[in-house]
Fold this sequence. Notes:
The structure holds 2 protein chains of 2 kinds. Chain A is mostly helical. Chain A has one domain: Up-down Bundle (Formate dehydrogenase/DMSO reductase fold). Chain A contains 18 helices and no strands. The two termini of chain A are 22 Å apart. The relative contact order of chain A is 0.15. In chain B, strands 2-3-1-4 form a 4-stranded antiparallel beta sheet, with helices on one face. Helix content of chain B is 51%, strand content 13%. Chain B has helices spanning 2-15, 27-39, 56-60, 67-92, 105-131, 168-178, and strands at 17-24, 45-48, 155-160, 181-187. Chain B contains 6 helices and 4 strands. By secondary structure, chain B is an alpha+beta fold.
Amino acid sequence: MTTAALQEDTPGKRAPLVLGHRDFNAVTETVAGIVEKKTTPSWLVLLGLAVSVLLILLGSLGKLVAEGLGIWGLNNTVFWAWDITGFVFWIGIGHAGTLISAILFLFRQKWRTSINRAAEAMTIFAVMSAAIYPVFHVGRVWFAYWLFPIPNQMSMWPNFKSPLLWDVFAISTYATVSILFWYVGLVPDLATLRDRATTKVRSIVLGIFSLGWRGSHRNWLNYEKTYLILAGLSTPLVLSVHTIVSFDFAVSIMPGWHTTIFPPYFVAGAIFSGFAMVVSLMVLARKAYGLEGLITIKHLENMNKIILLTGTMVGYAYAIEYFIAWYGGNEYERFAFINRAFGPYKWAYWTMWSCNVFSPQLFWFKRIRTSIPAMFVISIFVNIGMWFERFVIIVTSLHRDYIPSSWTYFRPSLFDISTFLGSFGLFFTLFLLFLRFLPAVAISEVKGVMPQADPHAGHDDHGHDAHDDHHEEASAKADESEDEGDEGEEASDDAEKDEEESRG
Amino acid sequence: MDKAHRHEELEEEAAKPFGLMGYFLTPGELMHACEKLKNAGYKDFDAQTPFPVHGLEKAMGLPPSKMPWIVLACGATGLLSAIALTAFVSLDYPLVISGKPAFSYQAYIPVMFELTVLFSAFGAFFGMWGINRLPMFYHPSMKHPSFPRATDDAFFVTVEAKDPKYDASKTRKLLEELGAREIVEVTE
């Protein structure tokens, strides 16, 4: 299968998105089968592990609520450390899901269809893991609702000039829109599961969540328009979210944070880390659930190319920060950057460079970017590197501030570590539940990109008058809008390709 | 007596035909059938497919979706709400920072943007289900014995009885000519 995919990847001819000569029913069977078959012991073991780690999170947060922020390793100088690092880390991971579901949709990248569902799920779970940090960092978590402009007896309002409040709006909007987008995508697939349900309970539960979807084309028409609109809304949204996250730093006057390059640099980093996480998860999930024919080497290779691109962009940002620190002539800025690379945290800084900038460069080699073990290892390196990037930005900028007497060296406490570790428990518990109970691949979308889904594909099957009828219709309508014109072109391209094939 | 009469009415309604349904195995055949139905003058017919068949709306002669207008209205509401919220809050509880005016709209742009997106997304989500009249507990087209395949691998066409051109035998004949399989008249 692998070599077939590679051979197909010649310029001018697209690799097939679904391997193994499947028909529509086979796609349904493959994906729905995962959800419908009996729970496997290995899944239970994994869930048990994930839940144990989740319990570590709950214990750590319980301790935090009971005793206060003092249990973390923060001090007067380093007032933000692992908590905000964890927050930015998880939010960044979430962004790849939106990139795959929204931005690649707008660019008509059909290969997104087999990975978008799982990537969107990853987004939602990553945002949930991220939200833990700011919510608990307020200290008295029972007052977390103060973050929202709710009328109260003190007639006090939050400060809308603060990037931290922008963040509240950005993250809550992002979480809400991601969930709506995900659910809209799920409804037709839940209807598929409903129509296959064999037990009363399944049919009722799925019946409720599929909202009575019946695949009516009058409904599909509004559905597709909505999907396009949600993709169009999510695209600027995801860019704004990480821009605003970077504003948490960039709007301050802290040397090392006060940089205008932060918004694009953070967005590139977010996409970079998110794709690495998608690769790590998909490599495992496709193997565990036999989805190799739907999530092909081609899909993974495309993601690796994006990792290479964004990794290089991140490397450029690291370099340009140094250039500006030197060229800007501000001695505090210059000190912050020299201290970052050669100060007490140099080990973290060079870990970041090795993982984020050097390791993805291996993806220039086709053999590496199409090798499952290699890409898995590199994706893990990228995840580690991106955690270190946030740690480096946050802690090295803070630990040596303007007054040398307050200089310090931050060490995480046990609870810093357990909270971060525990957030993986939350993420993986939710992800495993998703893989078990919801269709992990967008069934209807994958069917839509299969060659036999093109209504023009079946021309030879029926009479000639139908053929002519349709073409007259198509050419008459083609002028009406650009979009339709594009579709026409695409179709004729396909026809040309088919002709070429038959000649060859 | 009244009750008995209502019962009768209900029964009559239950037996009323909803329309004729049949299915095809390829999107191409469905597209062809929809074109033929449109050309034969049918208006109240629908297709049920496992995925959106592109170009089918042209074959069926459907108008474009009204969704963008709903979303535009909701987005505008979101933007105005955000302006109202930030203006009210900053004037009701002024926080003077660096001597900047209380209503420093430049600093509120992120919040305005986010709320515009949030309201638009809600508009898109709820508006779409509203236009599609979903959630729906039951639809007559689900009575076709092979309906579960409509979300799997079959491409259904339904000609509704309320169409003025509907005629149980003629419409059935037309569908047969088009090659539809398992043509069944489903009741309301």
